[in-house]
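In the current project phase, the collection of sequences with tokenised folds has grown. A sample record is quoted in full directly below:
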Amino acid sequence: MRGPLAKLTGIGETEFVRGTAKSTESLLTEAALRACADAAVDPSTVDGVVIPSAKITPESYVSALGINDLRFSAANSLGGASAVAAVMIAVAAVASGRARRVIVAAGGTQYSGRRLSRADGAATGFSWPGQDFRTHLEHPYGLVVPMQWYSLQANRWLHETGADPAGLRAVALAARAHASRNPQAYFARRPLTAQEYDRSPFIVKPFRLYDICLESDGAAAVLVEPASAATHSRQRDVLVLDGGEGHADVPDDLASRPDILELGLQKVAPRVFGELGLSPGDFDFAQIYDCFTFVVLRQLEELGFCGRGEGSSYVAEVGIGPDSKVPVNTHGGLLAQAHIAGMNHVTEAVRQLRGGAGPAQVRNASLGLVTGYGDMSDGSLLVLAN
């Protein structure tokens, strides 16, 4: 296996809540400052910023961190795949020498500000890719929010493969089981039983209430530095071995996609695993983007943990909960901890590889996988090690 591309030297998180008076800019810069403090570096020495989904401007970081010389800035727009893909942009920047310390922060006022559950998202400052297409060809037929779009994929998957819908329940229960070990999770003290899941209402079939992620306020950040950089804190280094992003052939139009089940992850995962000589079973844990339970099942399939249509069998027989071979979303994920644009998946992976995850710690964790999923199936991936 080749050497690391970069390392994550600091992580920072705000409080994860549902209801805040803080702005998105305040939350992102607070998380960034905490990441610098965690790495024991002066914030003014940061010389690069990558901004997932372009939530704020680079100048905001210059002011908030007191940056003396901002040499690199970038932004991306891949929905829930943005945070993980942004980390890889930062990795490229430090590996090429364009910057020495790059902050990547994601999150915001997902609960208190714009609401993904509102049909008038465009009116509140939120829009999806291909917005003209959405407005004129999908909205008239009632396709206006993510759970409706992804129900098309989920129902096709169930029909085409004969998969057991009980796999959705298994993912929801595993998320709550992990959250019970994480005092910071929204559902930390609120266990979920199979009976409660089955009694919950369908929101959009096949998604019941507990198949859908939380809406949360908060932010999380990582500090990316060259693999050769000196360590200033007492924290264990977390190395970035590889990563990348992938996009479906027809990115914005599910109805016209030749294979409606295609994910960008199908392209990036084989490439990264092949370059590193790794297989899914080599990982000690996986933090898999979980906006919906179905999305976890499909990513498990396309990552190679099982074949297409076998995700339900995998989670039922092999398992993804605590003490499973490869536990998934050890913090509770977007389903049970908080929806922090997927960056809490990255910070949890770092925490696990440092050995600092408390009751949720995976024993002897040394190799971790993180994914992102967004928009109309964009995919991103990180492979981390200690």
User: Anything to note?
Assistant: Confidence is low (pLDDT under 50) at residues 117-126. Residues 184 and 337 are 7 Å apart (CA to CA). DSSP finds twelve helices and eleven strands in the chain.
